[in-house]
């Protein structure tokens, strides 16, 4: 990271229902009532969105709900991301940031969202240790089929729901979905490489960094879509098409930092 500008796709994860205490805290907030709230996740792999099983936040990270250029829509993300977006034509006016609520990641755990293209109609917001407040939006959408970090974290949560203070039902039926196939890692690249490298937890950071690199490169250069409108096409070809489609239908926005 930090080598140069990064072209992200920000995926709009529509909030269906906040965790109960958070819903209570937001009730009566006139700026929030009647608005559609989106948790906004920055990704480098828009073509993997079919495989979303959940979304990750950092429990101690501070988030805000911000006005956007669309009066009916609010974005939930870090203030740092809101500041960047304010100079990318995504806020009410150039350079303007309007925050309507403050939240901390812990309050978001258990919130349900609608993740664009996901085969699961409703997924949960869950905790991840490694979410950085200083990258993207501080919200990470989880694709455990193709991201070793996401797979290792989801596996931790399934093994130790009490330790991570989550309801086991929020993870139990959410298995990785085969979405991309490669000759080296088959159609579940992240679970395959985690097994091969004996990665047992999100805490295996050095191993995960190597796995992430290997799967990312292999998926990009050798991957073929196994699901969706572009099934059978190379990932390299499908990636910009899926990205543009999500932007066209209003479910994603381009974002740079
Ligand atoms: B990627 P780069 Cl399937 N903290 O999206 C930690 N990680 C973050 C983050 C944050 N604040 N914001 C974004 N990310 C993750 C999908 C994906 C991603 C797949 C495979 C690999 C992969 C689903 N998660 O990233 O440091 C997001 O996860 C491997 C590079 O800017 C985002 O893309 O290069 C990626 O890290 C951005 O990482």
Automatic annotation (TrEMBL):
It is found in: Cytoplasm. Belongs to the class-I aminoacyl-tRNA synthetase family. This is leucine--tRNA ligase. The gene is CDC60. The chain holds residues 267 to 523 of 1093 of the full protein.
């Amino acid at each position: 990271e930090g080598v140069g500008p990064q072209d992200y796709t920000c995926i709009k994860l529509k909030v269906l229902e906040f965790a109960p205490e958070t819903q209570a805290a937001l009730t009566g907030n006139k700026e929030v009532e009647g608005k559609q709230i989106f948790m906004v996740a920055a990704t480098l792999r828009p073509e993997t969105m079919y495989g979303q099983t959940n979304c990750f936040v950092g429990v101690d990270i501070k988030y805000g709900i911000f006005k956007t250029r669309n009066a009916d829509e609010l974005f939930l993300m870090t203030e740092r991301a809101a500041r960047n977006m304010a100079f990318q034509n995504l806020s009410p006016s150039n350079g303007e940031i309007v925050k309507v609520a403050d939240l901390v990641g812990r309050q978001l755990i258990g919130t349900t969202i609608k993740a664009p293209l996901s085969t699961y109609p409703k997924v949960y917001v869950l905790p991840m240790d490694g979410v950085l407040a200083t990258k993207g939006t501080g919200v990470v959408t989880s694709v455990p089929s193709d991201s070793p970090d996401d797979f290792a974290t989801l596996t931790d949560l399934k093994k130790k729901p009490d330790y991570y203070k989550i309801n086991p039902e929020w993870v139990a039926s959410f298995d990785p979905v085969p979405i991309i196939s490669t000759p080296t890692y088959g159609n579940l690249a992240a679970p395959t490489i985690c097994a091969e490298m004996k990665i047992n937890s999100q805490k295996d950071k050095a191993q995960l960094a190597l796995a992430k690199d290997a799967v990312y490169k292999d998926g990009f250069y050798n991957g073929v879509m196994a699901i969706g409108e572009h099934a059978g096409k190379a990932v390299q070809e499908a990636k910009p098409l899926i990205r543009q489609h999500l932007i066209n239908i209003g479910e994603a926005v381009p974002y740079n930092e």
